[in-house]
Amino acid sequence: MRPHEHVEAFGTVDGELRVGGLPLSRLAARVGSTPFFAYDRGLLDRRVDRLRALLPDRVELSYAMKANPMPAVVQHLAARVDRIDVASGLELRAALDTGIRPGRVSFAGPGKAPAELRQAVAAGILIEVESPTEVERVIAAGEDLGLTPSVAVRVNPDFAVKGSGMRMGGGPQQFGVDAELVPELLAAYGSSGLDIQGFHVFAGSQNLDAAIIAEAQRRTVDLVSGLAEHLPGPLRYLNLGGGFGIPYTERDRPLDLDAIAAGLHELVDGVIAERLPEATPVIELGRYLVGECGVYVTRVLDRKVSRGTTYLVVDGGMHHQLAASGNFGQAIRRNYPLVVGNRVDAEDGDGVTVVGCLCTPLDLLGDDVALPPAGIDDLIVIFQQGAYGLTASPTAFLGHAAPAEVLV
């Protein structure tokens, strides 16, 4: 997607980008300083509404909090989704602070600490176990607390998903229990006082190919249909993962959600209804829910020319937005969409390079980007910043102040 498409999604007023209905300059004045992240609740609601309209009614929607754990965002989404997935004890407490029922919270991720597992058992949430060691720790916590832990087995599938930004299933993985070892695990622990509700399979993230995602969902349902025969009771929880991607660069094309929804309707009405009648299918999304609702706003501190290259030096950088610098998984660095937010209707000029304020050449936010002429105090806006922004960045590097976050 090109920057103008993102501008259209947020809207403009008097030549400025609008976020949450506010002109950018007014929002910046309200925040009080740059840089900052701003999340548009209207765009959040629009994304949830579209998913609800297209996905089968039987499918529950889970928010993967790791994508954006800002408390205001989590509070807002807790009222709009069916479940919240957490990846740490701190995220667990934040989820429970929303008032969501504990049974609607799941806890996934390798290397859960014993104290976190005890906390999860005490809270009554669903623990997605990823190894025999975790199972034994959960059993011990349940016996010590006098509680019956609720668990699902995270499965490392025997297939890989092509086209994903990060492959998280297939082959050797730190994630989940290898599919061929799940029957043995269930035989060993199926009668050990656990409430084993089902399975979670998450094969990959940031995928923009609807056909690949749909095929992965079909293979996941086939896999767990066989594994369900080894459960001590009926399969009730069927987490199909997510992996829905968003377009970050001009060469990316938005995901065809209609095609994915059509495939899910076939699965839900077909194999799941026939073979897993008591299962609740879950789609777990993080980036796809929040990624496109956010912007990162940073102010130009200096404009300089060095041997023919024009640099805009801004007060933000990779310490707040590691992904936009290309240092969060890009094999070949490509620019995220960015604009001069206080003059979005101006004509583009020659290419400029936008860099942050850190003492490293890695602090690059935009390389040879065609922008309207911009100078000191203009506001540079980077799009697609609602997910894996602040909390996925090295904020302590060089001791700069943390940016603000606002939900508007």
Automatic annotation (TrEMBL):
Biological processes per GO annotation: lysine biosynthetic process via diaminopimelate
Active-site residue list: 359 (proton donor)
Highest taxon of the lineage: Bacteria
EC number(s) recorded for this UniProt protein: 4.1.1.20
PROSITE patterns associated with the record: ODR_DC_2_2
Enzyme class: lyase
Protein known as: Diaminopimelate decarboxylase
Species whose genome carries this gene: Leifsonia shinshuensis
Lineage of source species: Bacteria, Bacillati, Actinomycetota, Actinomycetes, Micrococcales
